Amino acid sequence: MSRDLLFEIGVEEIPSAPLYEATVQLRTLAEKAFDEARLGYADLETFGGPRRLVLRVSGLAESQQDRIVRSKGPAAKAAFDADGNATKAAEGFARGKGVSVADLIRETDDSGNEYMFAIVEQLGNPAAAVLPELLGGLAGALSWPKSQRWGSGTARFIRPVRWLLALFGDKVIPVQFAGLTADRHTQGHRFLALERTIPVASADSYDSAARVGMFVYDAAERARIVREGIEALEQQRGVTAVVPQKTFAEVVNLVEWPTVAMGHFDESFLEVPREVIETAMTKHQRYFPVESADGRLSNGFIVAHNGDPARSEAIVAGHERVIRARLADANYFYSEDLAQNMEDWVASLDTITFHEKLGTSGDKVRRIEALVARLATLAGADAGVTAEATRAARLAKADLVSHVVVEFPALQGVMGRYYALAQGETEQVATAIVEHYRPRFAGDELPSTLAGMLVSAADKLDTMVGIFAIGQGPTGSADPYALRRGAIGVLSMILDGKLALDDMAEVIAAALETYPDAVLSADRNTIGAQVGTFLRTRLAVMLKDRGLAYDTVEALLALSTDRFAPADVLARGLALQGARDHDPALFADLSSAFTRAKNLADFSLGTESDPTLMGDAEAALADALSAAEQASAESFAVAEYSSAVGVLASLRGPIDAFFDGVLVMDKEDQLRTNRLRLLNRFVALFERFADLSKISE
User: Fold this and answer.
1) How do residues 268-282 score in pLDDT, each as one tens digit?
2) pTM score, whole prediction
3) Is the dihedral angle over the CA atoms 510, 511, 515, 521 positive or is it negative?
4) Which range is least confidently modeled, 64-73, 136-145, 436-445, 542-551?
5) What is the largest CA-CA distance in the chain?
6) CATH fold of 583-694
7) Degrees, nearest 5: CA angle 244-250-254
8) Rg of the chain in Å (alpha carbons)
9) Cα angle vertex 269, ends 263, 272, to 5°?
10) Fewest CB within a 10 Å sphere: which of 164, 222, 441, 492?
11) Architecture of the domain spanning 2-64+126-213
12) Is 297 within 8 Å of 270 (Cβ atoms)?
């Protein structure tokens, strides 16, 4: 026998993001709770709306499953005395388990010792008796980013809980939480429901109660309604809505009974940059901007409102008044900003603290300018690109003090581009200003120009090196300055954007040079090594994400200190991984031979061996090494690493024959030294490419 269960927690408006998280969390907690309570069910779902969290369980068992509990007690020798009488240990154990001493059984455990066991059958309780505590526990177990208390109670929730509904079939479950006791009533839409309090006859009649109450408790259903409403308006008006996923997801959780409508604003506001209008709509008002057929932003917007559909015209008029005021402010700010000179803004950056130990934003700009010039030289940029990048670096942070960016912080860089063009800067400089914030996250677009990449890399490296310099680098999962994201950005530009920074030691040193000694928490070499290790760790993660095996990555980076070229590491990794995938057995054997050679090698002896002391196997290996050194040098010179891997693989036969036919650690000093020098030469050749001892067989 089974029945459906419905549990609703009625709350004052829940913020959008925590609501999504709570819906998932409630499902996870409920699945675990029902499993631990031994209550089987057919299906379990959770839903969330602005004013409610809902748990629905289909086919919930009428009672808990029975179970047999087997409990281990005292050792047999401690449970009975020499005369076979039960000791207090046995009596206490039996009493605690609710059985008699005679019911205890004697068994031998895995260690061969005898113990007393109690076997107890526990009959399941009716579900109705279990559910009040279980459901109340679920409500109390929900974790929120921020929670609050209200009234005189002690319960904590993201917003005050106003009602509880709990039905098992048609039976009310008296769940208690936050000073409330559940009944069979839910609350309808604040403005649309004819009756605010709506009775629910049974768990399976909740949908009909929701229709009466004019609320949609399923976020997926609300999303469908909003999406179809937007599409209908697009077809009717011949326009295309701009629908950022984040804004759409937020809107879905702001409305209980969504109605989609279109409003308009004065066309004169379209003189304001498109990004300002879109930001004002999507981030501040949660409207969806609209494009005309030619892709230009129009003076329309789409809103999903929570009011009476019959009053949409009046509701939209209210939204039009709101957006008119918002855009009027934006237009004023933009006009005021255009009257300013960006150089004046640069001077104002000296009044803004970047970091209490690293100076002002003005200090940061001066460091970025100097570092961009150095990076341009390292990357082989021509004079024109260097000049563009240096100018962009000077202006990159200027818009931080503009009126528009103060009002809309997400537009930093974007507005810098507009202002730069307005005051006569070149398109290249303006583009580098907006692109220097890229990539902002993994997978984001890279700067499209070399000048943009140089400014972006300088900005990210300056922050990274500065934070390490003051001893505040990331620890564990804590990364308050987003240095990992910055490192991935720099490495992505090198790996995918072809930013030709081939020696990270020089790059890090150049960034450190812009900081005075007084700032540094350690000597420059130590800090440089820390930053180098940090970048190698990020590179290792990125290489694994690109399909390289973990031990391939270890083999590549085992040779690197802070002097490494990320693009070269990737190229060697792809060649090595490709060869391993083609012939795994070959490289497993080669790895074993290399590891053996490396363990025996003694580099203090050098690599010059005497041919007159060699037998056939030694001479064959020496000849093979000579040929391989010449061939690999040619491959390394042009970064033809697939060819280089083939050359190294060709040494498998000679090295195997060497180990099979020669006793390396011969008693004769001359023979032993000569053979070790030969192995030194073998290891040195391989370590130009990778440390194969790190490869697992």
Assistant:
1) 999 999 999 999 999
2) 0.81
3) negative
4) 64-73
5) 107
6) Isoleucyl-tRNA Synthetase; Domain 1 (1.10.730)
7) 140
8) 36
9) 130
10) 441
11) 2-Layer Sandwich (3.30)
12) yes
